[in-house]
Design a protein that fits this description.
The complex is a heterodimer.
Chain A lengths: L22 H29 L3 H12 L1 H28 L6 H29 L5
Chain B lengths: L9 H6 L9 H27 L4 H9 L1 H29 L3 H31 L2
Helix pairs in contact in B: 2-4, 3-5, 4-5
Classes of the chains: A mainly alpha, B mainly alpha.
Chain lengths: 135, 130
């Protein structure tokens, strides 16, 4: 007679809550979150490209882009894209087997974070001061 | 002495990994599109900054010009592929309920194709003035 046995109670491998939070670990999570955000950011791109065909539609897009909430979203989107791109470069370096040492990996994640914030600020300074937009 | 179960090398088995025979395909395309996305994203950011503060007619003309439109199309193609695979990994990692997972995997493909084609349509309109 066949008996179905309950699965044995096996210990689970330690997960996130076991470990002390580390910068590399947090940045791994941030990479995934920024990718998740960028996914929906394509809706803004689709809107912008379709709005560009008519003055009325473009005026509505520009009104959104120039509003406080619009600027906040676009600022966050800018940082998210830049951060994900630099994080991607970091992962491509790691894919080659380089930069895995204790100091190197800490240096890489720090450069990722500082770089993404700096580049985002520089892009917005260029955009707002020199190019006159978003209006 | 135990008989070998098959004559295939370890490398041959890895290359055809899994029941779908495509074990490393997504890994490879994730990297391929990631590398493509680096110059394309930089180019798109440069295009966007130069378009800031211009009126609709100028924006439509520049976006519809061949070089800019082709860069935008390459960016859309590579990005949509990349984000579709990425979201699929997120869904497969966190959703363990079979029906919810299948539903979201479908929705993911629908969203990626729809958003990508909508963006391409917008560009086509500017390029060809349809």
């Amino acid at each position: 007679m066949a008996e179905t046995r309950a699965p044995a109670e096996r210990p689970l491998s330690p997960h996130l809550q076991i470990y002390r939070p580390m910068l590399t670990m947090m940045m791994s999570i941030v990479h995934r979150i920024t990718g998740f955000g960028n996914y929906f950011g394509i809706l803004l791109l689709a809107w912008w490209l379709n709005a560009a065909a008519s003055p009325g539609a473009y005026a509505r897009f520009q009104w959104f882009a120039g509003s406080l909430i619009g600027r906040l979203i676009l600022f966050g989107y800018t940082w998210s894209v830049i951060h994900h791109m630099l994080g991607g470069v970091r992962h491509l370096i790691w894919d080659t087997g380089r930069g895995m040492g204790p100091q190197e990996r800490e240096w890489l994640v720090a450069a990722n974070l500082i770089g993404s914030i700096a580049i985002t600020l520089i892009l917005w300074i260029i955009g707002l001061l020199f190019m006159g937009g978003p209006q | 002495m135990s008989e070998p179960k098959h004559m295939r090398t370890a490398l041959a088995r890895v290359r055809g990994a899994g029941s779908a025979r495509s074990g490393t395909k997504h890994f490879w395309y994730q990297r391929l599109t990631a590398v493509a996305n680096i110059p394309l994203t930089i180019a798109v950011i440069v295009i966007m900054i130069t378009l800031l503060g211009r009126n609709q007619a100028a924006v439509a003309q520049i976006l519809g010009s061949p070089a800019v439109a082709i860069i935008m199309l390459l960016f859309i193609g590579s990005t949509v592929f990349h984000m579709k695979i990425g979201m699929q990994v997120i869904i497969e990692d966190y959703l363990h309920d079979e029906s919810a997972r299948l539903t979201l995997l479908m929705a993911n493909t629908f969203f990626a194709v729809a958003a990508g084609l909508a963006s391409v349509y917008g560009l086509m309109k500017l390029s060809f003035g349809l």
